[in-house]
Amino acid sequence: MRLFLGRFVSIVIFGLGWIFTGVRTVLDLIGYATVPDDAKVAQELVERLLIWIMSLPIWLPWGFTLVATLWLMWVSWPRSVPLASPVTQAPRADPSGVVQRGKAKASGTPRRAASFPAPEGMIKSERDDFDLIPHRFLLRAKRTDDGIDVSAIIQYRNRSKRPLWLAPLTHEFTLEGKVTMSERKSSGISVPIAAETSDGIHFNAIRIYKETDPGGTAEFTVMFGQAKDTMRSALRMHYDFTVRSYPENKSTDAVLEADVAETVEYYVIDPASD
Length: 274
What we know:
By secondary structure, this protein is an alpha+beta fold. The chain folds into two domains: 2-76; 104-273, no CATH class. The protein has four helices and twelve strands; from the N terminus they run ααααββββββββββββ. The strands form two sheets. Strands 1, 2, 5, 6, 9, 10 and 12 form a seven-stranded mixed beta sheet that branches. Strands 3, 4, 7, 8 and 11 form a five-stranded antiparallel beta sheet that branches. The chain is elongated and about 100 Å long.
């Protein structure tokens, strides 16, 4: 609603500015000397207005119109966010807190899972200095003829100076009780992730039909290590979220505002299982 009002007001000011500038320009072209004779039938107020406009310096109406035009361009520009913006430094993993990443707004609204069972043959680690860390969580959506397609993206980062091999354990995206898996199971997983590089997993979209505040979860658990046959650590990234916004225009792929609670857990191979 605020964006609509901004656009409406800017269009009105934009139109008035060009009318104002047009009148001033016409007066310069035809010469003010003919205006009193041509405006005898007009109201005295109109003549006074023309005299006032004529007294203004030429740069004032043109400057006003330029500012109004730039404002209209700014408020009408598409508000889309790129899938992955470059970052200079990856955030550190926070295994115990609620965080804010991208357009996800930290809040106590979503339920945050306290803990998860460890993958088979592994135990939970209290360390947080592993090479693979969470990077960003995004919700994207596109409006269609009969609903809204919402998808999730979980991004992670290798902060070490050596490549890491990855092997997925779990990946799931839920929204309003509907469940979907990753769109490309091999994305960022089939080959080592390069040193100091970010990658991610993109889930298939789930269609919803009402613009409410639906809640859902997204999770990705992945084993990692410096060699393909010696991976001994795992990272679980779990996100509880509540959607707070939707795309304004049809067919626009937009990043959604959402309240997000993140849970990060690391696991290592259980020595007893070796």
